[in-house]
Write a structure and sequence with these properties.
The protein is built from 20 helices and 16 strands. By secondary structure, the chain is of the alpha/beta class. Helix 12 runs antiparallel to helix 13.
Length: 494
């Protein structure tokens, strides 16, 4: 998403852009004018899109490197057409082949496109691929955070590759000083070339709107999406309950493979239309459904919330989806034994006592899942929320969804650690309310999230509206993709 938004801003400013990635649906991006493949043999199969809006103007070319059937990733998910393995699971031959094919592709693409600036995404593999491609004008290395936590910090071979890529970079950029600090701790000596370049928000699309309007708009858009039919069927709920009753974790895992994770739920439009009639508070999560994101902690905190008129909207996709559905079902049935088994089996923890679990009975009607809503649908989904919770337990580089939510008028409640702390601090400073939009992570976080929600939902209406306007205006003024693109160019020309 970072790459696509920066590319759109660069195209909008009149630049020509080449993007090397494995995006399977380039037709969804109106700034892309052509798509092709690239390997050591050169660029091939170039196909132009008919883009009236780009006639006579700049545009982007998307080139898919020919890497074979294996796609290394930091976090396991399904990717159409690929065998997926985590970077840390690759053997040496697989890693060498992947890096070699990518650097051959980048070398060929650079010879064809002749770029003035190259931005290499992720320290590993992007920076080392760029270094081995012997680019005429060098490259900028972009730290994302997942590269650090899911590869470099785990295996020495990725630390070696990180040194190789970073020591030759003209500049090393990251979304926050915190994520750059993590890199400098691991690869000292690059300090003088580090630059903070904040991500941006498409403030023309992410903006406040009335909740009912946002939800009805979203429902209408989803009804027109033919891909929704491939989403999670309602009948899976019974199988989730059966798997939990049998204490069968493998079966629960397997259920996530029974539908297309990359699309919204078929039942989402009707659910959203019903939610548009709801008058109580709406709390939400938007992102990946994986254990490091801490979504279960929000569900537990919601169970503690003393607002029976509140609803919790879980937007996202990931192979942990069925475990989260199972936790909601266990709490809905006040089944403490099932809730504790789910927490123990998934390694996520549970900070609810027996009485609190009994009091959560009936929560199933108040916690709602939509499946994945991609960037086409994100603005309306976030604008519908009163509070957006970002409960991640893993270090984050920044937390773009928190910025997008704030731009759309959702008050943030963010874990106060890593780059998220810088995000929260900036928004709290803009609002003049220290610690209002953040909570301390670690043991006891469930109760602190619940307390934070109570505080935000208990604000007088006029004060709440003023805070929404302040955070939205701050993001629109300070965190735009145009500013991000300008700073990337500045870093690349230094």
């Amino acid at each position: 998403m970072y790459t696509s938004r920066v590319a759109a801003a660069l195209v909008g400013a009149g630049h020509e852009v080449a993007i090397l990635c494995q995006e399977g649906h380039p037709d969804r991006y109106p700034f892309i004018r052509a798509v092709g493949t690239v390997s050591g043999k050169g660029v091939s199969g170039l196909t132009e899109f008919d883009r009236p809006t780009l006639h006579g103007a700049a545009g982007a070319v998307l080139l898919r490197p020919e890497i074979g059937a294996l796609l290394p990733v930091f976090v396991i998910d399904e990717y159409e057409g690929f065998e997926v393995k985590r970077f840390v699971e690759l053997d040496e031959a697989e890693l060498d082949a992947y890096l070699d094919r990518n650097h051959q592709a980048l070398t060929a693409a650079a010879a064809w496109f002749r770029p003035d600036i190259v931005v290499a995404g992720h320290v590993v593999p992007g920076a080392v691929v760029a270094k081995r491609s012997r680019l005429d004008r060098g490259y900028v290395a972009k730290v994302h955070g997942s590269d650090v936590e899911y590869a470099i910090r785990i295996q020495p071979r990725y630390l070696t590759l990180a040194r190789e890529g970073l020591e030759s970079a003209g500049a090393v950029i990251g979304a926050t000083s915190e994520v750059l600090g993590r890199v400098m701790d691991l690869v000292p000596g690059v300090e003088a070339r580090t630059r903070v370049v904040r991500p941006g928000v498409d403030v023309q699309r992410f903006r406040p709107m009335p909740r009912a309007q946002a939800l009805k708009t979203l429902a209408t858009e989803l009804e027109q999406d033919p891909e929704v039919e491939r989403g999670r069927p309602d009948g899976l709920d019974a199988e989730v309950r059966s798997a939990v009753d049998e204490r069968d974790g493998d079966r629960l895992d397997a259920l996530a493979g029974r539908y297309d994770q990359a699309v919204p739920d078929p039942g989402a439009p009707d659910m959203l239309r019903a939610l548009a009639r709801h008058r109580g508070p709406l709390i939400g999560y938007f992102g990946k459904l994986i254990p490091p994101k801490g979504v279960e902690t929000l569900i537990h905190a919601f169970a503690l919330l003393g607002r029976l008129d509140a609803r919790c909207l879980i937007v996202g996709f990931g192979l942990f989806r069925e475990w989260l559905q199972a936790m909601v079902d266990a709490l809905d049935r006040a089944d403490a034994a099932a809730a504790r088994w789910l927490a123990e089996c998934s390694g996520t923890g549970l900070e609810l006592g027996e009485g609190q679990i009994r009091a959560a009975a009936g929560i199933g009607d108040r916690v709602l899942f939509t499946g994945r809503l991609d960037h086409r649908y994100a603005p309306a989904a976030l604008a519908a929320l009163d509070v957006l919770v970002v409960p991640s337990v893993l270090p984050e580089a920044f937390g773009m969804v928190g910025a997008e939510g704030a731009a759309a008028g959702a008050l943030p409640l963010v874990a106060r650690h890593s780059g998220l702390a810088e995000l929260a601090g900036a928004l709290e400073d803009a609002a003049g309310r220290r610690d209002l939009f953040s909570f301390a992570p670690g043991p006891g976080a469930t109760a602190r999230i619940a307390q934070g929600l109570e505080q935000l939902l208990g604000l007088p209406a006029e004060e709440e509206l003023a805070l929404r306007r302040k955070v939205s205006s701050f993001v629109a003024r300070e965190w735009t993709w145009e500013r991000t693109a300008d700073r990337l160019i500045a870093a690349g020309l230094e």
